[in-house]
Hints:
By secondary structure, the chain is of the alpha+beta class.
Amino acid sequence: MTKKERGKEIAEKNNQIKRIDETHYTVNSQSRKKQHEVISTEFGWICSCEDHIIRKVQCKHNHAVEISLSIRKEVKTNVILEPIQSNHCIYCDSENFIKWNVRHNKNQDIQVYKCKDCLKYFSINLGFEKMIELIDKKNMGIMLM
Ligand SMILES: [Zn+2]
Ligand SMILES: [Zn+2]
């Protein structure tokens, strides 16, 4: 297997890559119980593992981060938001509510409801970033914070 293929394997597993921030990730070592730091620099991704530091090659950890980021980008552009349905009021748990109106913002429409029991308004939508986070966790092994 090439390093790229190994990286893809890591990227597709769950919870192998952890995002510290946009330019800093940790990738679990596949052989030992430790983590490698992968950091974005102006020269590309650098990694704290021996492969990268001593042999100066693109290691599987760099590939893993790159691949999972590109998968994430694809998801971001492909996701179509479905309105999230709920069957009870978020304040009083009543099922006695009506659709009130729809609010618009940049990314989506938000359905607003009015509860007939507590008379409060509430909207139901997980929001764009939240959706991505859920998808990432399920399919891509990236853990966002
Ligand atoms: Zn590495
Ligand atoms: Zn209510």
